[in-house]
Amino acid sequence: MKTFQKIVGYLLLAFTYVSLTNCTTDIETFEEFNDIQNIDNQKAGITKLNVSSVSANGDDGNTPANTLDGNLNTRWSSKGRTGKYITYDLGSSKKVSSVKIAWYKGDQRKAYFKIRVGNSTSSLSTVYDAKSSGSSGSTKQLETYNFNEVNARYIRISGFGNSSNDWNSVTETEIYGENNGDNPPPSGNTPYALLGLQNWKLNGLQGSPSNNDYVDAIPNLQSYTNSNWFFVENNWTIFQVWAGSDTSSGSGNPRMELRELTTNGNSNIYWDGTTSKEHSMKWKVRVDRLPSSGKVCFGQIHDKTDKFDDVIRVQCQGNANQTSGSVKMRINGYVTEELEGGGKTVGNFNLGEEMYLELTYQNSIVKLYELNSSGNRIKTIFTSKKASAKQNYFKAGSYLQSMKGKSYKSSDYGRVAIQQLDVFH
C-alpha cells in the first residue's frame, strides 16, 4: 500500500511539473511548486539558506533585490559579456551545495554563466561552469545547479550574456545547503571573525594609549583583539586611537586602520583605477567620536606613489571631542585638494548614525555611493574629475586628521565602528 502511495505521489509531482512549465505562472503557483521541489531536499538535510544581502556591479534599473522577491515577473539585468555579476551574502559561512536560478526568457534562450563562491569577495572559486554550455534554454522556472559541498559566505553568479544578446538577466535565485550547528560561523569574538579579514592587515599600535609604538602589520590578526584599540562591541568592530600616538614615518597623524592585501593575504595589493574594471569597497560604518581636531577619516583609496598618495579620503568634520550631533561629510585627498583646489563638503550625518557606503574607482573616476540595507546604490554622494592613479588599495578604520604634534590626553581620541567590509575587483 505504501509503495502504491509513493508511485501516485511521484506521478502527481511529474504532472504538476509538466503543467507548470507549460503555462504562465503566477506567484502562488510558483510558491506551491517550490514547496513540492523542496521536499526531497528537506529529507536529505538540505535547506534553503537565508540571504543577508544582495548586490551587483551594475544594473539597468532592474535591481539585484528583485531576484529575492519570490516573483518571476521581476528581475536583475546587466548588459555585458564580461565582468558582470550579482553577489549574495549569507551573513556568515555556510555549507553550500546547490544554487537554483530562474532566468529571464529562460524558455527562449540559454544564459551563459559561472557560479563562484568563497568567504571573501576578493577570493572566490568557480564551483559550476556553464560559460560555454549555458542554461537549459527550455524553462522560466528555477533550474538547479549542484556542486560539491563547500563552505562559503558569498555566492556570485558571473554572467557572460546569452544565446541571443549580451544581457544577463536573473528573475529568482535560491541557495541551498546546511544551516545548522555542524557549520558555525568563524569562532571567537574577534574583529577578524566578524569582518572576515583574510585579505587585510591592520596598521595600528602596540602598548598603551599613553605609551605606544606604531606597527605596520599587527601579528596574529586572526586572534587579535585589544580593549584599547581594536575590539568587538555589540556586533561592531571598534577602531579607537588617541592623540599623541605613534604613527608611520609618512604621516604625522595616528591611526588604527585596515589596509587591503592580495586575496591570499600574503602581500600588498596594487590595482589600476584607470581601466574599465570597477574596483569597489562597501562598508557599514559608524563614527562615534571626534578628536580635538574634530576630524576623522574612516575610508580611503590610497596610491603607492607620492603624486597621488591619498587619492580620496572619506572623512568628517565637526567640533573638538564631539560625541553626538551633526557633522559634515568631507571628501579630501587628491581628487578634491589637487583637482578642485581644496576639500569638499558633500553632506551631513550624525555621530553614532549607521551608514552603508560604497567607494569605487573605474575609468579614472572615483565615486562614493550611499547604499540601502540590501547593498544597492540609492544615491551618488560624490563623483570626481579624472585621476589616473594606477597602484591603488583600499583602507578603512579610524585615521585622525590634523593631529600632528598633539600630546596624549585620555579624553582626546577618535572612535569609528565597522560592521561589514567587502572589496570587489
Automatic annotation (TrEMBL):
Gene3D superfamilies listed in its UniProt record: 2.60.120.200, Galactose-binding domain-like
Iron is among the record's keywords: no
Keyword Iron appears in the UniProt entry: no
Keywords: Lyase, Signal
Domain of life where this protein originates: Bacteria
Gene source species: Aquimarina mytili
Domain annotation F5/8 type C: ranges: 32-178
GO BP, sorted A to Z: carbohydrate metabolic process
SUPFAM superfamilies (alphabetical): Concanavalin A-like lectins/glucanases (SSF49899), Galactose-binding domain-like (SSF49785)
Lineage: Bacteria, Pseudomonadati, Bacteroidota, Flavobacteriia, Flavobacteriales
Signal peptide: 1-21
Gene Ontology molecular-function annotations: hydrolase activity, hydrolyzing O-glycosyl compounds; lyase activity
Pfam families with a match to the protein in the record: Alginate_lyase2, F5_F8_type_C_2
UniProt name for this protein: Polysaccharide lyase family 7 protein
